[in-house]
Amino acid sequence: MPMTLEELARACNARIEGGDPMALIVSAGDISSAQQGQVTQLTNARYTHYLKESAATACFVAEGLMPPAFPATMALLVCTDPEMSFINAIGLLHPEPQYAATIAPQAVLATTVSLGENVYVGPFAVIGEASHIGDGSAILAGAYVGGRVKIGKHCRIHPYAVIYDGVVIGDHVTVHSGAVIGADGFGYKFRDHHHVKVPQVGNVVIGDHVEIGANTCIDRGALGSTTLGQGSKIDNLVQIGHNNKIGRHVIMCGQVGVSGSCKIDDYAILAGSAGIADHVTIGQGAVIMARAGVAGDVPAQAHYFGSPAKDKRVAYKEQIALSKLPELLKKVKWLEEQLQQLEKGQD
Amino acid sequence: MPMTLEELARACNARIEGGDPMALIVSAGDISSAQQGQVTQLTNARYTHYLKESAATACFVAEGLMPPAFPATMALLVCTDPEMSFINAIGLLHPEPQYAATIAPQAVLATTVSLGENVYVGPFAVIGEASHIGDGSAILAGAYVGGRVKIGKHCRIHPYAVIYDGVVIGDHVTVHSGAVIGADGFGYKFRDHHHVKVPQVGNVVIGDHVEIGANTCIDRGALGSTTLGQGSKIDNLVQIGHNNKIGRHVIMCGQVGVSGSCKIDDYAILAGSAGIADHVTIGQGAVIMARAGVAGDVPAQAHYFGSPAKDKRVAYKEQIALSKLPELLKKVKWLEEQLQQLEKGQD
Amino acid sequence: MPMTLEELARACNARIEGGDPMALIVSAGDISSAQQGQVTQLTNARYTHYLKESAATACFVAEGLMPPAFPATMALLVCTDPEMSFINAIGLLHPEPQYAATIAPQAVLATTVSLGENVYVGPFAVIGEASHIGDGSAILAGAYVGGRVKIGKHCRIHPYAVIYDGVVIGDHVTVHSGAVIGADGFGYKFRDHHHVKVPQVGNVVIGDHVEIGANTCIDRGALGSTTLGQGSKIDNLVQIGHNNKIGRHVIMCGQVGVSGSCKIDDYAILAGSAGIADHVTIGQGAVIMARAGVAGDVPAQAHYFGSPAKDKRVAYKEQIALSKLPELLKKVKWLEEQLQQLEKGQD
After folding, report:
1. Which pLDDT score, from 0 to 100, does residue A218 have?
2. pLDDT confidence band for B66 (50 / 70 / 90)
3. Which of A314, B76, C113, C151 is 20 to 30 A distant from A234 in Cα terms?
4. Do residue A254 and residue B259 have CB atoms under 8 angstroms apart?
5. How close A69 gets to chain B, by Cα (Å)?
6. Residues of C in Cβ contact (< 8 Å) with A215
């Protein structure tokens, strides 16, 4: 919702330099395209050229990163951490939709469901037996919550997310549309020429402040729990197999795959489309680079690249060497010829 | 719906040679298995052998590509572009299901929704505040359309597709089941040992004649729009991150991933499972081959292969060289031995 | 449901050694964490150390694989195949939820739907014209079944799975949430600067005892059928394009992609994120290793690795050689210098 520059500055811990403190800020914009009525941010000296002709009404800048040139009408919002101030500003100018504390008449709740205070349940949502939804949580239209599920406080379950029976979700968790939490893990034993299913009777346990992207799948444990620690953020179309133990503040980007029974330690980062074989440990703070295929354990803080993945310093050397290989083949051929001539010379 | 050979030929701009113009054509079939009552096509001389014993009632062939042998009972439908004529024939013989202009009593539409003419809304579909559905569009059972969404004319939104708030969709757009358009982009800043979410307040804007596959995800822009130009075709399980600007007539095959803030120019083709790092530009008409991992800009018309992806001529040379590398290791060892012997000889 | 050790042993073909035959077994647990009241299994001598201090009430062991040390209170359940006996035990202790033979009042069934005996249809499920659901099948909440679909006996279609028109599914098939069976294949012809859609008018035919993971997509054939043979098991987020003919007892792990018109023979195994180009044949029992990219036919029983994929013995040799390549570059440089010195010596 719109606010004056002065109000915005105060709310975001910034000092105004120039501009009109009564100017109305309506929305947040990108530095390359911000218009009048918008606030933007400058976080990198590379982008100062955008400011020169920008129509933005205001711009967050860091103490000490003053832009060399900017329009006289633009206000600078000087602060210690412009990225965080800008995040605050976006949140204030574009508040998330709120859901009234109502249960849509078209929702189907089992009689044994227990609801906290200020819970919203949208039309066509289904909540199964003995499940609990915590205070302030919103189960949006068509979200499916199975039986014996526990969802904490201030969660948001988007349309057509599916939470299978027995899943436990902490507070302040967002599950985007189409995510499937708690489907069967993929486990079979081969007998008499066919695959016999190992019943998957565990569950999924998700910590506080986790965000789960659209169409991501997290399978239930075979016997125990697949776990996902607090503060971890999972992007879209990620596959997390059964029995994985995923730490806190882990990042998994789009289309990552973690097969099963892995241990992903706190603060690990799995970049886009990275894949992890089963029973692998990824150490604390390790970075698995985009499209890497990891078949063995990765030490803490290491950066791994390639498929099969190796420490990135090793992998980069190999990639550079590979680019020289076609030339090397020619050179070795030439060396061989030289050698043959030398041998002839010796005869 | 069934039609006579004569009717079909006229509708598809073809000349009948042989066969019975009154024969009934019931459906279209593949050249390798077409049966009596079916029409098929011959588009490649490699497949003429299938025709020899085919029971198909008719076959589209190109002027100048007459099959050497085919059953006397088979009619040839001679035309200039058999692929296009066959596409027309399939459409006529197998018309798409049409939806009556009705709103299912089990749908939930906000009071401020505006509907064009001849709109179908299926059971359990949900349409949010201030959204608009254009003439002739069908919102199938259970499709979810958020608030302030604009859907153009003659669109088809399949069951359980989810369109988040504020998304704009052009005319003649198809969204398959489970696709999620407009979920939050994946953006966090790391502060005080945890990931702080950057609010994602932009939207997605989709041009005319776009098709979006099942379970594909297209994230909303962080501040502005993620855009997808007219005529682009996106297969299943594709991930398109926030702020991407995707041109017109772009092809993305199954499981492609485009991280974020990329520019994919018109007519680019991204083959299956290709992945594009963030802030990359893919030039007009460039082809990113299957499973390629692109980390930097790709020039127009270039063909890129491998991961990390390179111009395919370079990448192929490296792959061929790699296959010779085990032998090269042996040869260098042998050269070393020869050289040592030569050195001994010189002493 | 809980049972005594004696009951469990009898039901699972095991002989009790030690422990109390009247002890109550409540659930199944993993060998590393099983507690009192739980039964576990020992299938590998590597894990015997877990048993030494285990609180498990009972443990399945193979004749001839007796653990060297285990608590006196623990009963051994000696049998010929502990994995299968344990699978039976899990099934008995954790029975799958059963669904009463009812049609939820919130379901929408076309008047021409035919239902077998003991069918469950959950709230907000939709079943289209002329479709048939076989005896004992459960169509869970919000599952969408199009028109002219045939679903066999004892199937389970999970919430928000989508079965498009005309799909045929055998008996004992499980389809997990968000799976989309029968969406359009991805086929276009390029004419006049745009992509013209080839109508996709075939269907999908799925055999008995197939399991399909969450958010997996199987496209309908362009003209004929995409087929999936009996006993095949498909994990989550798998993409199976149009016209593929997939045999019996095939395994596809998470995020596998099969483009189109492929033939995957019986008992083939496609490990996680493997990808198959179009028109490829994968021979019987072949194993495509994780993340392999297959561009050509693979013989029966072969193991393929890498991208582009090769027989794993060849691919491994290349990978090992690649790791020696940076050293090889140095050595060839040194050889060149030696040779130049020799040449000088000859002058």
Report:
1. 98
2. confident
3. A314
4. yes
5. 24
6. 178, 215, 237
- Against chain B, the chains showing at least 3 CB pairs within 8 Å are A, C
The answer to whether the CB of A309 falls within 8 A of the CB of A292 is: yes
What pLDDT shows up at residue C347?
60
Question: Looking at B154, B172, B242, B249, which residue is catalytic?
Answer: B242
Collapsed DSSP state (helix, strand, coil) of residue A281: strand
Per-residue model confidence as pLDDT tens digits over B324-347: 999 999 999 999 999 888 888 766
Q: Residue C315 above 90 pLDDT?
A: yes
Give the pTM: 0.97
Domain C3-93 sits in which CATH superfamily? MurE/MurF, N-terminal domain (3.40.1390.10)
Strand partners, C41: C60
Q: What are the strands of the beta sheet with A257-258, ordered from one edge?
A: A108-109, A126-127, A144-145, A162-163, A180-183, A217-219, A239-240, A257-258, A275-276, A293-294
Distance CA B89, CA B107 (A): 35
End-to-end CA distance of chain A: give it in Å, rounded.
92
- Burial (CB count <10 Å: 0-12, 13-18, 19+), residue A75: buried
Q: What is the nearest CA distance from B117 to chain A, expressed in angstroms?
A: 25
Instruction: Provide the terminal-to-terminal Cα distance of chain B, rounded to the nearest Å.
Output: 92
pLDDT tens, residue by residue, A20-39: 999 999 999 999 999 999 99
Instruction: Indicate if ipTM > 0.90.
Output: yes
Domain ranges of chain C: 3-93, 108-313, 321-346
Lay out the sheet containing C239-240: strands in order across: C108-109, C126-127, C144-145, C162-163, C180-183, C217-219, C239-240, C257-258, C275-276, C293-294
CA distance A231 to chain B (A): 7
In chain B, which ranges are continuous DSSP H helix? 5-11, 48-52, 82-93, 312-346
Nearest CB partner across the interface for B180, out of A122, A174, A214: A214
Q: Do residues B310 and B296 lie in contact, with contact meaning Cβ atoms separated by under 8 Å?
A: no
How many Cβ atoms from other residues are within 10 Å of residue B125's Cβ?
A: 30
Chain C positions touching A222 (Cβ under 8 A) are 30
pLDDT digits (tens, 9 = 90+) for C38-58: 999 998 888 999 999 899 999
Query: Which residues on chain C are in Cβ contact (under 8 Å) with A124?
Result: 124, 142
Which among B234, B236, B305 is the top mutation candidate for probing chain C, defined by the most C β-carbons within 10 Å of its own β-carbon? B236
Inter-chain residue contact B231 with C189, CB threshold 8 Å: no
User: In angstroms, how far apart are the furthest CA atoms of chain B?
Assistant: 101
Q: How confident is the model at residue B64 (pLDDT cuts 50, 70, 90)?
A: confident
Share the mean pLDDT of chain B: 96
Q: Distance between CA atoms of B253 and A75, rounded to whole angstroms?
A: 46
Please state at what angle helix B312-346 crosses helix C312-346, rounded to 10 degrees: 50
pLDDT number for residue B346: 67
Tell me if residue A328 falls in helix, strand or coil.
helix
Separation CA B298–CA B294 (nearest Å): 8
Q: Inter-chain contact A144–C159, Cβ cutoff 8 Å?
A: yes
Give the residue among B183, B255, B179, B261 at the shortest CA–CA distance from B219. Answer: B183
Q: What is the pLDDT of residues B210-223, one digit of tens each?
A: 999 999 999 999 99
From the list B164, B191, B217, the residue facing A236 with the nearest CB is B217
Three-state secondary structure readout of A87-130: HHHHHHHCCCCCCCCCECCCCEECCCCEECCCCEECCCCEECCC
CA neighbours closer than 13 Å in the CB half-sphere of residue B192: 4
Q: Which member of A193, A223, A339 has the closest CB to residue C28?
A: A223
CA dist A183 and B296 (Å) reads 37
**CATH architecture of the domain with range B108-313:** 3 Solenoid (2.160)
| Whether the Cβ atoms of residue A42 and residue A64 lie closer than 8 Å to each other | no
Q: Which residues of B touch A215 (CB under 8 A)?
A: 178, 180, 215, 217, 237
Stretch A162-185: mean pLDDT, rounded? Answer: 98
